[in-house]
Amino acid sequence: MTQHALIRRSHEPEHLRTALELAAAGVPVLPLRQGKVPFGNCRACAKNVCGGRPNMKVPGPCQCAAVCHAWAAAATDPAVLTSPAWATAWRQAVGVAYHPGGAGLTVVDLDNAAAVAWAQETLPATRTVPTTRGQHWIYQGTMRSHNAVRPDIDIKSRMSYARWLGSGTGRVTALPPSVRALVVKARPAPHAVTVAAPAGGGECRHRTPAYLERGITMAEQRITEARSQVHTTVYRTFLAVLSAHGRCGCLTEAHVTRLFTAAQAKGESPRHCTVAWANARTALGV
Fold first, then answer.
1. Containing H/E element for 129?
2. Is the pTM of this model over 0.85?
3. What DSSP string runs through 32-90?
4. Whose CA is closest to 235, among 202, 286, 279, 201?
5. 54 CB neighbour count, 10 Å cutoff
6. What are the Cα distances from residue 235, in Å, to 59, 230, 259, 260?
7. With bands split at pLDDT 50, 70 and 90, how would you rate the model's confidence at 6?
């Protein structure tokens, strides 16, 4: 490093220096504001009016170049981290966060002594990092993130962020099936929701049952394969199904139940499903 670079680095905020060291090791990072949460979206992206990043499972700067979209803003490019768009955030930062999934890691966040004791009895040993109230257990490998897989235990990996609290102690070991199983067990069974299908009354364009079946199957697949913006995907899928099948009377409550089941399997609540369905019907007037 040149003398000029050393002088410049010495004037950087402490959290930015930490972030640049992590980024150099391939760990995507972002600043945390007061409350130890990510900075809010910029005005251009407020309330996600921009639609978010095209592929939210890949960490990196938002297209607006500001510190946007929480974990998805995490970056490893020093040019991004030191850009003017990020400068104010680093000056105000109270900590550094990283995207575990982007670094190929999974964090088991144990929030108190009881949770730590459970992990010590149940999970394979790996690197541990002390936190304010408990520990982070770091495993090599990625998986779906999920909160409250057990009392006071969260999983942070893909599409999530974790506070950087130091390198910890111990060797990072491979992500075990026992950790993956925690998310499966925590996933609630779909709730039965009764929603009336449109009464129809228009001319039926579906000359064979196969046409409708293919449409519902494709809709289920579209929801199931959503990797980001699940709320939006569910609504748009409901809108597409109703647009094609909602006016002729072919769509039944059994078809609606299949769509709701697919949405709930992606984490949507019964209430969100009902509201999205109602909004789609209102938008189309069916």
1. strand 127-130
2. no
3. EETTTEEPPPPGGGGGGTT---S-TTS-S--TT-SS-SGGGG-B--HHHHTSHHHHHHH
4. 279
5. 9
6. 25, 9, 11, 11
7. very low
